[in-house]
What does this fold into?
Amino acid sequence: GCHIWRIGAYASAIARASGWTFDMASELKLSAAMHDTGKIGIPDSVLKKPGKLDTKEWDIMKTHTTIGYDILSKNDTAFFHLSAEIALRHHEKWNGSGYPNGLKGENIPESARIVAICDVFDALTMKRSYKPAWSVEDSFAEIEKTIGTHFDPEIAECFMRIKPEIIEIKESWEK
Ligand SMILES: [Fe+2]
Ligand SMILES: [Fe+2]
It folds into this structure.
């Protein structure tokens, strides 16, 4: 649904706050929206399973990163380059415990470090079949807990600093 466009809007706001140019942030807005492109390659039995995924299904789910990369990297323009890098790296974590490769810290592209926060924030604040929508306050608090483990501290700091703008974006998609 609107998930992909909200992620794009959040991502470009954070990028601007962390010093990206307007043009780069605008490019990120569209690229970030394509982060889960690889999910088109995941079977519905896994993607739409109502309950918890078992280990095997979870391994299949994780391949949406490499599938997305394979699709998006076929095009050799700057835009698809950025999109492919985000698709591949948006589930990596700052402390190296993410997937697909367990990259650590600044080895994870900055674009993907930004999108990682947006993706989690959006998942928390939106209603899911297995959980209600969390409040903005609770969602910010949750993200704050994993700064330095899941999230890049500097980017998380930018995210915290532009909270009013993040709320504005969230509300603009609820109209
Ligand atoms: Fe994803
Ligand atoms: Fe996502």
Notes: The chain has one domain: 3-172. Residues 110-125 form the longest helix (16 residues). The pocket of fe (ii) ion (ligand 2) is lined by residues 35-36, 119 (CB under 6 Å). The CA atoms of residues 36 and 87 lie 6 Å apart.
